[in-house]
Model the fold of this input.
Amino acid sequence: NAGVTQTPKFQVLKTGQSMTLQCAQDMNHEYMSWYRQDPGMGLRLIHYSVGAGITDQGEVPNGYNVSRSTTEDFPLRLLSAAPSQTSVYFCASSSGTSGGVFEQYFGPGTRLTVT
Amino acid sequence: AQSVTQLDSQVPVFEEAPVELRCNYSSSVSVYLFWYVQYPNQGLQLLLKYLSGSTLVESINGFEAEFNKSQTSFHLRKPSVHISDTAEYFCAVRPYSSASKIIFGSGTRLSIRP
Done:
């Protein structure tokens, strides 16, 4: 059981480039989320999904797209990278059942630098 | 809307000393409360949670937190810290009505001095 996996671990982009951050979970969790972590600001929710085919915006969605075609995968797309998107990105998942919905499992993170 | 305030960005303590990490929240609806821990270069892990019932909750590694509804606080305490507790700690809230939206505080970096 790998839990939540993220690739790549590190990425450097030039302004204007696009890329996709990958996230996968093997726990059959319904809920998946993307956060960005910036110094002194905690984690901020970018987008989330409550199941395959269903996504919604979080607190800071601008400049990012998501899709959820399968239960396992929840990729995050940067459409045109900007220096303000330099951050550490975390993917998380949680179960939709009443007992499991309270705990989010986090991936190890992707450190993105935009120059 | 909800917000979470962690009053201290950094807390240095000596090994075996007690520690308290403060967390206050604001919400117009009922919320569940959490503490997460992030060890260096890792993702976040759930440390403990308050859902209902006893206002004092404990983790397996000696941390405890007390929910105080009147003061809207959920402070984290440990009577004697160890070097291995060095990490960043995040307080978080989640509205009863939303399973997906968790609001995090800005974090408190706990550094333990030998």
In short: The first strand of chain A starts at residue 4 and ends at 7. Chain A touches chain B through 27 residues (CB under 8 Å). The mean pLDDT of chain A is 91. DSSP finds no helices and eleven strands in chain A.
